[in-house]
Task: inverse folding
């Protein structure tokens, strides 16, 4: 590697406990991965530790780095832990309590009487009503009362607010008032982060729009500071490569954009995992995938259809809506650290409470007392007693003791039976969540490949595929760091939406055309700023459509080119089809309304491929070890064990078998066959008998 | 032998997932917007006897659990695979509780034997009858509330019964919607049947059968364990609906709750005679009717959120529902608006239990906010608009641990509001304010949640505004343990103007362009003495615009000037007005609003006892009339006449009535 200059790409994905790093070279086929500790108190330190260790791994110099990717939880944590900046909300007179009321409804699964309303990020004492009004057609009913506004300006100064969100009624139609106030505040205050709703989410429904604007405003000071630290630090290290930040929507954006739109980073981490899975699917020519990322406290489930991750137009964080484009991820409280207990009725319950990383499972010996899923896997021999090459020793005796004390004894059964019970229950919980994402959406899991990753994914994947009845299970070569490798295969992506209601029989071609054009212009300008070659820019149109009278819309695609009666009809027809697919009926006689128009802008990047594994000499490879593993009530079974790094392209293993690697263990059950592919993935299928 | 714990837990997951899957099928395939927006439907699996063992938790009317299909199941002579039965008659089998609800059930066979029923209901937008949507408080007999299908096979061995279907569809206003929704129900039942077969395949028939029984026992045991924890005793409580008919007298629901070891007895004797309006609750006197037990289930679940929901819970309960009263009306009493009575009954149940465990339950939820619709004309296009604008919601009651929720509470809590921007775009109105009602929270150490209010302007002539389920204009939600009552709800035309009209509990009004409508939901009741509320919490309420400084002083004894607490004055004020901090207040467990206090000065327990005793001697069809006669007699009496409130005048008025109508005496003698 001495002669020619290397072109390294670095991807850093910061999680709660560990930071995963990948350093890769496109031409030389390098692909090194490692884990460093996260530094939650000052995340930027963790970022640079990771970058340093990546450079050291390849003995690379900073000048050789030509691109840096980053998935971050800075915005996520600020929202989750309500640690955002002190934020004021400016809204239209008469609507100070919109955030507090919300959509008023209580979740179906909650007790109507005992439910506790989630705390709002901004309280009404920090909400100021502006004397102004825009009508529902965008015309101005009342100009801004300037004198009154001055009083609010004074309150913002006196209140020492760090951020201001401005969300006025009908600003998606007429943003003038929001902009006027923005300009005034920007002029008066030098150190105030200002977010306006017509920028963040120019879509109707004032509660959701205000909430998105508030969330964006409150993370802004933090995200802005973090981004500056990253940029300054990289410059200090003489890394001149551009930095890209992972967004919730599965794309990346530039630091400049991130500093303005921090709320788009809310699902930065998990989105990268889905992206990594989609990329694996692309390499292996698998288009329809269910992904499950099982970590210590939770499992994230997402869908990839036709090679593309499913993107939703919103999600909930802390039970509050965030109506921005996000990778559609369903999270449940089930993971390796999930705690098992006995209910008053004598049933085994697992999770959602978790021992997390600290103290972690009993077997970690860091003070965990109650048995977890990992402890159950360990006492059954499904996990080795050493992890991370011996850096972490697992205490099987302690795990066994905890299961005996808290589960087996109260139930009057054996430790083995109790551990099998714990795993059966947690697998059922995960299976139910997997079904929710597939069966309950009318999709048949049979047609999908399950990709299981994260520390505990490969341990449970083989059982989950059976419960869900998928025909294939794929375990990535590096299951623990798929989020980081996923970063290497992202594109720039921006999603824009705006409300322009079009009623049946009155579709306004000119307005639709202008709406798409103005959104496209904004998108192109952003990609240009990100220095993307225009040839690599791809714009896709979409629309949110509904039957008149419905309270929610369906997103459909809208064809390129001139807006004509034909292209509108085509979109209407697609709406009927989509509605039928999702709800099993369509109604051609009911008027169809267009509500929002959307542009998705992709700036295609040059993806860095994963290196291939060498071809094996034959199908068989002999086991390196054996250990006693309990699979069922028939007791321990002497089971062959392989080391993941010994496996080459073409090797096959028939279950029952165990494959250990640095940070996880893959379990092949009796009746299953594992094949290693050219990318180092393990593909598991049921052997037909 | 019972199924082992791990298998039972997994079977439990499977049964719940099966019910959930049925609900998703129904939701996905349902045709009417109403079903999609309100999720007013249920799905479930029952034993061959009709006991529900699985219900969904994520979709539908998730709290309407434990409905017993047994009586309706028995009304069909013979079942074959592929049969599906249906009824929407509130007086056949007492599974359906008002005509818009079509209930269906499908037998699930294993070999030649029925092992379960796959069941569910959907609230149809309309089933014909006197008014669109088939619901109005003013209806007086069930015949006006739409077509009724007694338990009938709508499908025989997979073949649809076209004749019945056509009769049904001929009698409803939007048949294509009913048909679409019925198809969705059938699809859901088929999903349920498939899921039962999957479970039998996985667990084996014996484990399935035994496990289902175990799951019912499981819920029963849980419920009994919760009840055993409650202090034994008898707890009486009564609450009111403002009016028993349009412009009527107050309507009382009475509950004597008896907690006896691990059993509950709920005696509704003393509740009003069946109404000549549509707020009756058809239970058929079933001592375990789900309609009456929803409140109990909420209570038990509030006490232990791990409670598994199925029919087993009901086994710990027995209700006494006297025939001919509003909680057990006889045919042909109208029942369409039973939701309003049910809402009141849930709160009533909480209130009775709160006496037993005041530190574990909450004050009255806010109530009386309507579900609102606007019928107007769009200025520009001239098209007629029919739009649902909002359910006006209120808060939940304060409790020992915390304040109630603002703007979201019990009762219609599952309903979403409609955003202001959508209302203005869709409903042809201009909204001037949508917010929380200042000073509406029931004061308390932990206050109740605030109600919501809306002021909007009509933009066209002949704009009709309907406000279904309006109530609590007079009698607002009570506070407990020293907490006070929440504010009343309100419905005004042109508020604060010369031409202001108080619309009371009216549920329809026609207005002109430029007219303003003010509508609000009441506030929820508080918990604990408000003079013991943290002054800083009161200050926060003032800063948020939830409490005015005047109210802060009067209700909480906290003196706030310029957004700052005046500590010395607060202490002084709280000391001087000791009545609020002393035990005087604590003596009454429930604090009701002043209007109710006034009413109950006249309509004492003695008066009601005399009334209840007297009315039950009359034929059912005379009771409502007699009640009105007696109320109006008492109303006209001099306020200082002791006979007015000690039961004597009630007895007297009743004898005079019997005197006046000798036929009544003949019946009495017979």
Result:
């Amino acid at each position: 590697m001495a002669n020619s200059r290397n072109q390294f790409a670095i991807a850093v994905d910061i999680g709660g406990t560990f930071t995963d790093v990948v350093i890769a070279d496109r031409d030389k086929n390098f692909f090194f991965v490692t884990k460093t500790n996260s530094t939650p108190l000052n995340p930027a330190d963790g970022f640079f530790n990771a970058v340093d260790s990546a450079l050291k791994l390849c003995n690379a110099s900073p000048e050789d780095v030509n691109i840096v990717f980053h998935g971050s939880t800075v915005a996520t944590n600020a929202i989750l832990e309500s640690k955002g900046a002190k934020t004021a909300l400016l809204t239209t007179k008469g609507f100070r309590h919109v955030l507090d009321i919300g959509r008023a409804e209580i979740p179906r699964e909650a007790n109507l009487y005992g439910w506790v309303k989630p705390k709002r990020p901004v309280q009404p004492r920090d909400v100021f009503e502006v004397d102004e009004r825009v009508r529902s057609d965008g015309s101005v009913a009342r100009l801004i009362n300037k004198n009154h506004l001055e009083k609010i300006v004074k309150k913002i100064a006196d209140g020492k607010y760090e951020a201001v969100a401005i969300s006025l009624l009908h600003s998606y139609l007429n943003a003038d008032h929001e902009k006027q106030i923005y300009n005034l505040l920007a002029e008066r205050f030098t150190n105030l982060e200002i977010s306006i709703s017509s920028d963040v989410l120019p879509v109707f429904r004032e509660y959701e729009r205000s909430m998105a604007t508030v969330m964006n405003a409150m993370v802004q000071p933090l995200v802005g500071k973090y981004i500056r630290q990253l940029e300054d630090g990289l410059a200090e290290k003489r890394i001149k490569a551009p930095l890209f930040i992972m967004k919730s929507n599965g794309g990346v954006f530039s630091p400049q954009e991130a500093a303005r739109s921090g709320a788009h980073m809310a699902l930065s981490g998990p989105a990268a995992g889905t992206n990594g899975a989609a990329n694996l699917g692309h390499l292996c020519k698998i288009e329809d995938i269910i992904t499950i990322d099982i970590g210590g406290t939770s499992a994230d489930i997402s869908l990839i259809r036709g090679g593309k991750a499913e993107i939703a137009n919103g999600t909930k964080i802390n039970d509050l809506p965030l109506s921005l484009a996000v990778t559609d991820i369903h999270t449940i409280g089930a993971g390796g650290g999930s705690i098992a207990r006995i209910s008053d009725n004598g049933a085994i319950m697992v999770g959602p409470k978790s021992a997390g990383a600290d103290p972690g499972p009993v077997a970690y010996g860091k003070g965990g007392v109650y048995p977890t899923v990992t402890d159950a896997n360990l006492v059954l021999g499904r996990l080795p007693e050493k992890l991370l090459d011996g850096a972490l020793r697992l205490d099987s005796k302690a795990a066994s003791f905890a299961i005996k004390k808290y589960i087996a004894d109260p139930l009057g059964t054996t430790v083995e039976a109790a551990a099998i019970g714990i795993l059966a229950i947690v697998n059922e919980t995960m299976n139910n969540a997997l079904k929710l994402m597939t069966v309950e959406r009318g999709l048949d899991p049979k047609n999908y490949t399950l990709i299981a990753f994260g520390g505990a994914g490969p341990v449970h994947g083989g059982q989950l595929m059976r419960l869900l009845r998928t025909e294939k299970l794929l375990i990535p070569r590096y299951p623990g760091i798929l989020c980081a490798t996923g970063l290497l295969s992202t594109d720039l992506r921006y999603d824009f939406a705006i409300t322009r209601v079009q009623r049946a029989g009155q579709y306004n071609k000119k307005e639709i055309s202008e709406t798409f054009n103005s959104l496209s212009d904004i998108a192109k300008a952003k990609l240009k700023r990100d220095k993307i070659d225009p040839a690599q820019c791809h714009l896709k149109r979409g629309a949110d459509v509904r039957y008149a009278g419905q309270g929610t819309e369906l997103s459909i695609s809208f064809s390129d080119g001139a807006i004509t009666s034909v292209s509108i009809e085509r979109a209407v027809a697609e709406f009927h089809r989509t509605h039928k697919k999702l709800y099993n009926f369509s109604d051609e006689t009911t008027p169809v309304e267009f509500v929002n128009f959307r542009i998705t802008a992709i700036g295609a990047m040059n993806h860095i491929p994963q290196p291939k594994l060498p071809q094996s000499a034959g199908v068989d490879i002999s086991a390196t070890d054996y250990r006693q593993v309990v699979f069922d009530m028939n007791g321990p079974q002497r089971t062959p064990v392989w080391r993941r790094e010994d496996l080459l392209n073409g090797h096959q293993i028939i279950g029952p078998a165990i494959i250990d690697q640095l940070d996880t263990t893959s379990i092949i059950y009796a009746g299953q066959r594992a094949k290693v592919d050219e990318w180092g993935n393990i593909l598991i299928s049921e052997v037909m008998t | 032998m019972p199924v082992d714990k791990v298998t039972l837990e997994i079977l439990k997951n499977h049964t719940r997932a099966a019910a959930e899957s049925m609900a998703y099928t129904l939701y996905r395939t349902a045709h009417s917007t109403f079903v999609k927006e309100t999720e007013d439907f249920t799905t479930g699996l029952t034993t061959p006897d009709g006991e529900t063992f699985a219900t969904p938790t994520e979709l539908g009317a998730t709290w309407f659990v434990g409905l017993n299909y047994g009586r309706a199941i028995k009304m069909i002579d013979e079942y074959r695979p592929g049969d599906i039965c249906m009824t929407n008659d509130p007086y056949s089998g007492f599974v359906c509780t008002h005509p818009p609800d079509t209930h269906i059930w499908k037998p699930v066979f294993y070999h030649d034997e029925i092992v379960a029923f796959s069941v569910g209901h959907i609230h149809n937008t309309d089933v014909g009858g006197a008014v669109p949507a088939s619901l109005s408080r003013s209806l007086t007999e069930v015949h006006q509330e739409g077509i009724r299908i007694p338990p009938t096979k709508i499908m025989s061995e997979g073949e649809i019964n076209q004749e019945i279907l056509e009769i049904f569809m001929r009698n409803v206003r939007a048949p294509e919607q009913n048909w679409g929704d019925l198809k969705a129900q059938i699809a859901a039942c088929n999903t349920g049947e498939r899921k039962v077969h999957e479970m039998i395949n996985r667990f084996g028939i014996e484990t399935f059968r035994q496990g289902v029984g175990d799951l019912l026992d499981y819920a029963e045991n849980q419920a009994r364990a919760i009840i055993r924890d409650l202090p034994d005793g008898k707890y009486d409580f009564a609450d009111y609906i403002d009016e028993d008919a349009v412009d009527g007298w107050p309507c009382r629901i009475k509950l004597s709750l008896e907690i006896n070891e691990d059993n509950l007895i709920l005696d509704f004797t003393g509740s009003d005679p069946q109404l000549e309006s549509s707020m009756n609750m058809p239970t058929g006197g079933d001592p375990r009717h789900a309609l009456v037990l929803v409140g109990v289930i909420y209570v038990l679940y509030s006490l232990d959120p791990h409670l598994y929901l199925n029919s087993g819970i009901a086994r710990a309960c027995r209700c006494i529902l006297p025939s001919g009263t509003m909680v057990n009306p006889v045919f042909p009493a109208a029942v369409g608006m039973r939701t309003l009575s049910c809402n009141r009954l849930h709160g009533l149940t909480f209130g009775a239990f709160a006496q037993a465990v005041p530190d574990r339950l909450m004050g009255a939820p806010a109530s009386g906010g309507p579900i609102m619709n606007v019928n107007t004309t769009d200025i520009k296009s001239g098209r007629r608009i029919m739009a649902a604008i909002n359910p006006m919601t209120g808060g939940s009651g304060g409790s020992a641990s915390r304040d109630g929720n603002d703007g979201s509470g019990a009762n219609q809590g599952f309903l979403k509001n409609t955003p202001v921007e959508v209302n203005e775009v869709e409903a042809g109105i201009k909204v001037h304010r949508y917010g929380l009602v200042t000073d509406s929270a029931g004061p308390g150490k932990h206050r109740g949640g605030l109600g919501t209010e809306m002021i909007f302007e009509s933009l066209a002539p002949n704009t009709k505004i309907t406000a279904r389920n309006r109530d609590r204009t007079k009698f607002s939600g009570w506070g407990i343990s020293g907490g006070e009552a929440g504010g009343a709800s309100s419905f005004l035309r042109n508020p604060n103007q010369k031409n202001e009209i108080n619309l009371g509990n009216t549920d329809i009004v026609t207005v002109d362009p430029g007219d303003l409508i003010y509508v609000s939901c009441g506030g929820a009741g508080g918990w604990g003495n408000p003079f013991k509320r943290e002054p800083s919490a009161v200050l926060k309420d003032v800063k948020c615009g939830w409490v005015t400084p005047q109210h802060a002083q009067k209700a909480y004894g906290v003196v706030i000037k310029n957004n700052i607490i005046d500590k010395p004055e607060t202490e002084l004020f709280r000391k001087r007005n000791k009545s609020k901090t002393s035990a005087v207040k604590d003596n009454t467990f429930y604090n009701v609003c002043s209007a109710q206090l006034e009413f109950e000065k006249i309509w004492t327990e003695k008066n009601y006892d005399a009334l209840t005793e007297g009315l039950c001697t009359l034929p059912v069809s005379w009771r409502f009339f007699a009640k009105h006669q007696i109320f109006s007699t008492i109303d006209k009496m001099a306020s200082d006449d002791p006979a007015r409130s000690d039961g004597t005048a009630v007895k007297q008025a009743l004898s005079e009535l019997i005197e006046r109508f000798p036929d009544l005496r003949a019946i009495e003698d017979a």
